[in-house]
Design a protein that fits this description.
mainly alpha, 83% helix, elongated, transmembrane helix, signal
Length: 100
């Protein structure tokens, strides 16, 4: 069985191959690194949810195109964006009240 080192997973698979190109060549990368570590943890949770889903897709269109976003993030992101919107709105109202 091919064993992946941390360097292979994190640097070669996750950062370079999986997250950027979204395709890994070696079995080790695809199964152990990309699917488990990179795509689920680094890409889905960090990059996809926070950057692509929450900020770009969910906040703007309230719908995610990518499966990872739609399944794991949309419901959470919609709530997050509503809360964020309320905080911003509250800050604007508070700021306007202070100005008056």
């Amino acid at each position: 069985m091919y064993y992946c080192s941390a360097l292979c997973c994190v640097v070669l698979c996750c950062v370079v191959l999986c997250c950027v190109v979204l395709c890994c060549v070696v079995l080790c990368c695809v199964v152990l690194c990309c699917v488990v570590l990179c795509c689920v943890v680094l890409c889905c949770v960090v990059l996809c949810c926070v950057v692509l889903c929450c900020v770009v897709l969910c906040c703007v269109v309230l719908c995610c195109a990518v499966l990872c976003c739609a399944v794991l993030c949309c419901a959470v992101c919609v709530l997050y964006c509503i809360v964020l919107y309320c905080i911003v709105l509250y800050c604007i109202v508070l700021y306007c009240t202070v100005l008056e």
